[in-house]
Write a structure and sequence with these properties.
The structure holds 2 protein chains of 2 kinds. Chain A is mainly alpha-helical. Chain A is built from 19 helices and 2 strands. A two-stranded antiparallel ribbon of chain A has the order 1-2. The chains are: A mainly alpha, B alpha/beta. The structure holds adenosine-5'-triphosphate and magnesium ion. Residues 43-44, 84, 157 of chain B line the site of magnesium ion.
């Protein structure tokens, strides 16, 4: 045991004495910095864009109006009327606040009124439109919401279920002081003090998820297409939980879920979107490349430089040397992932502050929302991304045991890492064969599989781990066999 | 005397050729054994097989009575050495290299490292990266590494390679001391025979993968003295002289325009040739007896192998 530890220390000394390793480590640290900085910059850019001056907005309205006039697509008169109104009342084109929505809603009612079949219906719609405009002019959003409540109650088309859903939202607005607004633009993603904004966002998405559930429910029975339904259900649970428990920032595994805000994580850009984004497999791939370099030269370079004789003249059995080399690759992977995790956490705090550091991780189990640690969730993401890193490093390690040329072992490893998933996707799309699910790289996007975006239907985490395990075993046996039988020439 | 390394009918095929052909020999504690042979004779291959770096196609090897294949770790505890080149990590310093080695060996202390570094005269450069070393310095580091754990069997494959004359002398004295005073069995391979002559107690000669003989250096030299002598004639014109020799049914070697070498049975035969040359009108300017070194014997024994790579 002591011997093995000493052999591992030897490997570490060798790896870290190489200048190439140091350069790679610096490059990886720089990459972490660039990633965080780029996120920070894009936020700054967005802010500048959001505060663009109103005179250019007036010009934009003029352009829109001019276009509507020249194209004259059906209903253009109403639209020109609407944009003219918005321009004259200086309603911000970009922030998508409640007035913008109310004006749009009012003019929708006006155009519906034109198409109304009965006089009474026409009068009702026109009245609604005028009432809406009135609330805008009085700057009274609560009255607007009350108006909406009245309209929902009067609406003959809505089912009881739909009514209940919409009324829940509107009442929540009144009781919690949440102005209506556009989910994306109206939600001021960069200010954390405006608590109303995240609530509006959650409300809008909740409503849209509930709507999908209503539509999908009927469809799902016919088509058995349950994915959208499941997504909506998940989002309803999460968003309801957030609204009831005052949870602004959170993380969740369902990254592809359109009802959970921007990129499915916490809405907007904050510590958690940036930090959990750092578990991105393409960023962690750089750690993978460093490990491939270490693993790919571990054995071959000893043979090509002749230093294997330096090793084998000692009272250490070959398998111990091999084990020490592999264990040092493995431990290096774990250490580097851990350091990268900490480094990214610190960098993200440096750029985005500590707001939301305590955000929970939300998931749904058996219809109930379960809270967990978001730090643990991101660590888990790192670990899953690390599995691929270790697998490709093991591949290079086995090549390293077969060839004398380190560049070959490293090159093939890097090539496989960069192209593996792409080639697998292309194969899956062109051949549409089921056996492709047994290809290593159909199973390496564990983060994606955990977040339910998979290449094949029913690709589960245990299945993927089993496939990876089999490949690893083959790689390791090859490495073992190659090294044990290799002659020193 | 204790047998330390025992090689028994070792055989190896490589690329369809029999590279090592039934080699057997032994080395003893307290002696320097010279393993001599021309390039490509199979010295390195034999050493690699003895240390288990290369699989053999037959034969056994034992170190201190331990079968290298079956008791590898126990056997290797007793071995130190350099195979082919002093293999070191260029990107590590000399000291880091020695520490790598130390971690693979039981009972090597930092003090021992310092002692050995001083012993090979590298104390000023031991903290430099090895890639900045000269060949001789690397060789010294190799020796330091080989003797670090005080092995019972020290195997040095062409250790004088790259050493300066002073270094060669130091190494020679060191190996002799290790063998004769500390009882180490030293195996040195080389084709530089002049210096083997000075440091080896016994010599095994190998050519084309076969052992041609194992003899003590003293016996070899005596044989050399007992055999034919070679005399170098310096004459006015070798053309005529060769004709005279032909008449006497003698043949010369190393013929140049002014000189030729002639193997003779005795001094009388040399003077006879001298008289015949003068009678034939060939001016003889000088007659010098040539010293027969181990080198000549070696070339003689190994025959073709001496100047032709098998
Ligand atoms: N990898 C190999 N494949 C095929 N033949 C080899 C290989 N390595 C060595 N040989 C052959 O084995 C024979 C012995 O080589 P070896 O290196 O043992 O000679 P040596 O006595 O150490 O020579 P030198 O004095 O040049 O070091 C040579 O004929 C060589 O051509
Ligand atoms: Mg050799």
């Amino acid at each position: 045991m002591r011997k093995l530890t000493n052999l591992i220390i030897n490997e570490y000394v060798k790896v870290f004495a190489k200048i190439s390793t140091v350069i790679m480590l610096i490059a990886i640290a720089a990459l972490a910095g660039i990633y965080t900085f780029a996120n920070y910059q894009s936020v700054q850019q967005e802010k500048r864009w959001q505060t663009s001056d109103t005179s250019s907005q007036l010009e934009t309205y003029d352009q829109i109006i001019a276009r509507e006039r020249s194209v004259q697509s059906p209903g253009w008169e109403i639209r020109v009327e609407r944009y003219t109104y918005e321009r004259d009342h200086r309603i911000d084109l970009y922030d998508g606040n409640w007035k913008d929505l109310a004006v749009a809603n009012a003019f929708d009612h006006k155009s519906n009124a034109l198409a109304a079949e009965t006089e009474s219906e026409k009068a009702r719609l026109e009245q609604a439109a005028n009432d809406m405009i009135a609330t805008v002019e009085k700057d009274d959003w609560k009255n607007y919401v009350n108006l909406l409540i009245r309209l929902v109650n009067q609406n003959p088309i809505l089912s009881a279920e739909e009514k209940e859903a919409q009324l829940w939202t509107l009442n929540y607005r009144l009781t919690h002081d949440v102005k209506p607004g556009n989910a994306y633009f109206g939600y001021n993603i960069y200010s954390n003090d405006d608590q109303a904004d995240w609530r509006n966002n959650a409300l809008v998405m909740l409503e849209s998820a509930k709507q999908t559930m209503n539509e999908q429910y009927a469809k799902a029975v016919a088509d058995r297409e349950t994915n959208a339904l499941a997504e909506a259900e998940y989002a309803v649970a999460i968003n309801t939980y957030r609204l009831e428990n005052e949870v602004n920032l959170f993380t969740t595994t369902h990254t592809g879920n359109q009802y959970l805000g921007q990129s499915g994580k916490t809405p907007g850009v904050n510590f958690w979107t940036v930090f959990s984004g750092s578990a991105n497999k393409y960023i962690i791939m750089f750690i993978g490349v460093l490990l491939i370099i270490v693993a790919g030269s571990a054995i071959s370079s000893e043979f090509s430089s002749g230093t294997v004789k330096f090793l084998l003249i000692n009272p250490v059995k070959r398998w111990k040397i091999l084990a020490a080399k592999y264990i040092s690759v493995l431990t290096m992977a774990v250490i580097m992932l851990a350091v990268f995790y900490l480094l990214n956490a610190l960098l993200t705090i440096a750029f985005f502050g500590v707001t939301g550091l305590t955000a929970p991780h939300l998931s749904v189990a058996g219809g109930n929302v379960v809270t967990g640690s978001s730090f643990l969730y991101v660590a888990w993401q790192y670990l899953l991304a690390g599995v691929v890193v270790v697998t490709t490093a093991t591949f290079s390690f086995s090549l390293s045991s077969l060839v004398r040329n380190s560049a070959l072992a490293i090159g093939l490893g890097v090539f496989l890492t960069l192209s593996g998933e792409l080639v697998t996707v292309l194969l899956a799309e062109s051949l549409k064969a089921d056996w492709i699910r047994y290809i290593l790289f159909a199973n390496t996007d564990l983060g994606g599989i955990m977040n339910h975006s998979t290449l094949f239907v029913g690709q589960t985490l245990p299945f993927a781990l089993c496939v990876i395990g089999v490949y690893m075993a083959v790689f390791l046996l090859t490495a073992w066999d190659g090294f044990m039988r290799r002659d020193v020439r | 005397m204790d047998i330390v390394l025992k090689i028994n009918s070792l055989t190896k095929f490589m690329g369809g050729r029999k590279i090592i052909d039934n080699i057997s020999f032994e080395t003893y504690a307290g002696e320097v054994f010279g393993f001599l042979g021309p390039n490509g004779a199979g010295k390195t291959t034999t050493i690699k097989m003895a240390l288990g770096m290369l699989d053999s196609d037959g034969g056994e090897m034992e170190i201190c009575g331990l079968n290298v294949r079956k008791k590898f770790e126990k056997a290797m505890v007793n071995v130190g050495g350099i195979v082919e080149n002093p293999e070191t990590y260029g990107y590590l310093t000399g000291l880091q290299n020695l520490r790598q080695y130390k971690r693979m060996r039981a009972g090597v202390t930092e003090e021992r490292i310092q002692e050995v570094v001083r012993f090979v005269g590298l104390e000023n450069r031991i903290k430099d990266k090895v890639k900045k070393y000269s060949l001789g310095m690397r060789q010294r580091l190799g020796v330091a590494q080989a003797i670090l754990h005080k092995p019972k069997l020290l195997i040095l494959d062409e250790p004088t390679n790259g050493l300066d004359p002073a270094g060669i002398r130091e190494l020679r004295d060191m190996l002799k001391k290790l063998a004769h005073e500390d009882g180490v069995a030293v195996l040195v391979s080389s084709h530089l025979l002049s210096e083997m002559e000075l440091m080896c107690d016994r010599v095994g000669i190998i050519a084309n993968g076969r052992i041609l003989g194992v003899k003590s250096t003293k016996d070899l030299m005596n044989e050399a003295a007992g055999n034919q002598k070679i005399v170098r004639f310096t004459v006015g014109e070798t053309g005529k002289a060769l004709a005279v020799l032909a008449e006497m049914s003698l043949s010369a070697a190393n013929v140049t325009s002014q000189t030729f070498d002639l193997p003779v049975e005795s001094d009388t035969q040399a003077s006879e040739v001298n008289i015949r040359l003068i009678q034939a009108g060939v001016p003889v300017m000088g007659i010098t007896p040539l010293e027969r070194s181990l080198e000549d014997i070696f070339l003689e024994i190994t025959g073709e192998g001496g100047n032709q790579i098998a």
